[in-house]
């Protein structure tokens, strides 16, 4: 993963990102680290990039935009490929 791509992912999460239609997450900062995970198809252990967010705030909202819950996470991990799909 290129440094420019890493920076784009971090900036997206600093500005805020909808994980789905009801969950919004925003963070102060982040870093990309490589973490081992089992590949879905081949069942091999591979190293994949994960975005680790620092001081993340997670908001759960209803369909009218009313905030239902606020959670604070000192560290919050998101797979980079999932964040890239959300950004499209």
Would you mind describing this structure in some detail?
It is a single chain. This protein is α+β, with helices and mostly antiparallel strands. It has one domain (3-87). The chain contains 2 helices and 5 strands, in the order H-E-E-E-E-E-H. Strands 1, 2, 3, 4 and 5 form a 5-stranded antiparallel beta sheet that branches. The two termini are 17 Å apart.
Please render the helix and strand layout as text:
Blueprint: H1 3-15, E1 17-18, E2 23-26, E3 29-38, E4 45-61, E5 67-79, H2 80-87
Antiparallel strand pairs: 1-2, 2-4, 3-4, 4-5
The gist of it:
The protein is of the alpha+beta class.
SS content category: alpha+beta
Number of helices: 2
- Count of individual domains: 1
Helix content: 10-25%
Order of helices and strands: HEEEEEH
Distance between the termini: 17 Å
Radius of gyration: 14 Å
Based on DSSP secondary structure assignment, what is the total number of beta strands? 5
What fraction strand? over 45%
Low-confidence stretches: none
Mean pLDDT: 89
Broad shape: globular
The profile of the biggest β sheet is: 5 strands, antiparallel
């Amino acid at each position: 993963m290129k440094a420019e791509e890493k920076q784009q992912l971090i900036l997206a999460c600093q500005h805020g990102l909808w994980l789905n239609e009801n969950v919004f997450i925003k963070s102060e900062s982040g870093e990309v680290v490589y973490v081992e995970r089992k590949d879905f198809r081949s069942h091999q252990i591979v190293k994949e990039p994960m975005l680790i967010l620092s001081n993340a705030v997670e908001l759960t909202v209803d369909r009218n935009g009313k905030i239902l819950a606020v959670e604070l996470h000192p560290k919050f991990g998101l797979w980079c490929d999932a964040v890239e799909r959300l950004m499209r």
